[in-house]
Amino acid sequence: MPFIAVAIAALAVGFEALVQWKWGAMGIVAFVALTIGVKSKNVAIGGIGAVILVMLLAQSG
Questions:
Q1: Which residues span the membrane (predicted)?
Q2: Which of 13, 18, 22, 50 is 20 to 30 A from 61 in CA distance terms?
Q3: Burial class (CB in 10 A: 0-12, 13-18, 19+), 28
Q4: Cβ–Cβ < 8 Å for 34, 53
């Protein structure tokens, strides 16, 4: 069980570093807002994070 928790934490940190490298600070803000919205079941915050991420993805592609 502890190995799975460490592996998941490492994946989360790796994903966060990828977002920071690819989309900068705004990507991190969007990722954090989306995560907080999902964990707290707050649709407004999660929606804001999702919209920002979609806008960043549309801008880069």
A1: 27-58
A2: 13
A3: middle
A4: yes
Residue 34: CB atoms within 10 Å: 19
User: Is 56:26 a contact under the CB 8 Å cutoff?
Assistant: yes
The DSSP call for residue 51 is H
Range of the domain at 22: 1-57
Q: Which residue has the tokens 């995560």?
A: 35
CA distance 15 to 33: 15
The count of structural domains within the chain is 1
8-53 pLDDT tens trace: 888 888 887 887 787 788 888 888 898 899 899 999 999 999 999 8
